[in-house]
Specification:
This protein is of the alpha+beta class and about 130 residues long. It has 3 helices and 6 strands; from the N terminus they run H-H-E-H-E-E-E-E-E. Strand 4 and strand 5 form a beta hairpin.
Length: about 130
């Protein structure tokens, strides 16, 4: 099981709290505004299957699985090319790959879930 870094969430929360306590303002970047959080248990069962395959190193159902995710939309935090990789979350009844994906960040082993083909992401929280 993968455990995302807690410092990212704590750091963001501390910045908001600090700004509010001293009467400052908080401005969100587009990426910060679009990345939420989701409990591992709230993911669809197919996302659990995908995460298990990632942990095992495959085999994956689609050739595109494991390829570099470019983050062209700029929703995820900016990282160097090759940092993120994407994997299909199977959508039952869909004749195509569908819109659901897991995107992993390798250095900190964070996992993101999107159900809307990269319009928004939720950082997977394994602790709830």
């Amino acid at each position: 099981m993968r455990f995302p870094p807690r410092i990212t969430r704590i750091g963001a929360s501390a910045a908001v709290l600090s700004a509010l306590l001293v009467g400052g303002t908080v401005t969100a970047t587009p990426a910060a505004a679009a990345v939420g959080s989701i409990c591992y248990g709230d993911l669809p069962s197919q996302a659990h299957d995908t995460l298990d395959l990632i942990e095992q190193g495959g085999p994956f159902p689609y050739d595109q699985d494991g390829t570099v995710f470019q983050n062209r939309e700029g929703v995820l935090p900016s990282q160097s090319s090759g940092y993120y990789h994407e994997y299909t979350v199977i959508t039952p009844g869909s004749p195509t790959r569908g819109a659901r994906r897991i995107v992993t960040g390798e250095e900190n082993q964070e996992d993101y879930y999107t159900a809307d083909h990269y319009e928004s992401f939720d950082l997977i929280n394994y602790g709830c």
